[in-house]
Amino acid sequence: MPSLFRFIFTVAALAGLVYLGMLALVTFVTPEPHEIVQSLPASRLNK
């Protein structure tokens, strides 16, 4: 039974680290919007 508690604690700790990592990314990383330009070949426009 102690190994089950150790496993559950390990999984919960890993889930907490993943959650904190996602929270840090949301808090500290700001996306920079920019315009995307992609040229189309003329053969696709004339169809």
Description of the structure:
The chain is mainly α and 47 residues long. Helices cover 66% and strands 0% of the residues. The chain is built from two helices and no strands. The protein is elongated, with a radius of gyration of 24 Å. The model has no long low-confidence stretch (mean pLDDT 90).
| H/I helix tally | 2
Q: How many whole angstroms does the radius of gyration measure?
A: 24 Å
The sequence of SSEs as H and E is HH
In which range does the helix fraction lie? Answer: 55-70%
Terminal CA distance reads 69 Å
The total of beta strands comes to 0
Topology:
Elements lengths: L1 H27 L13 H4 L2
Features:
47 residues; 2 helices; mainly alpha
Concise overview:
By secondary structure, the chain is mostly helical. It has helices spanning 2-28, 42-45.
